[in-house]
Design a protein that fits this description.
single chain; 104 residues; mainly beta; SH3 type barrels; 2 domains; 7 strands; 46% strand; elongated; hydrolase activity; nucleotide-binding; hydrolase; helicase; RNA helicase
Length: 104
């Protein structure tokens, strides 16, 4: 579901998909993907609103996509034989995802 959140960085209200929620001492924090700016941001729970139906029908300016024919890799370390090799992985690790987002 798409919500409206206030982005401190952009200083405006934006449409967003909520990725995760975590609790802090001063309240809840939301990790959101801004669908019109293709950015991730953290938002305090008091800065989220329900999206008006008319605005929900407007197409997003940013689209989530995947890299064609690119498979995730990981580093396998064998402590017994003191070797390391790169091999296939089932999913991307968080460091690779963060590096790719920084490239974008």
């Amino acid at each position: 579901q798409v919500y409206v959140v206030f982005s401190e960085e952009l200083q405006c209200w934006c449409r967003a998909l909520v990725q995760s929620v975590w609790h802090r001492a001063d309240g809840c924090q939301l990790r959101c993907f801004l669908v019109d700016y293709a950015k991730y941001c953290s938002v305090a729970s008091e800065n989220i609103r329900v999206l008006a139906e008319a605005f929900a029908k407007i197409p997003y300016r940013a689209k989530k996509c995947r890299l064609h024919c690119t498979k995730p890799l990981t580093l396998y370390i064998d402590y017994c034989e003191n070797t390391a090799k790169i091999g296939p992985a089932k999913r991307w690790d968080s460091a690779a995802i963060q590096y790719f987002q920084e490239l974008l």
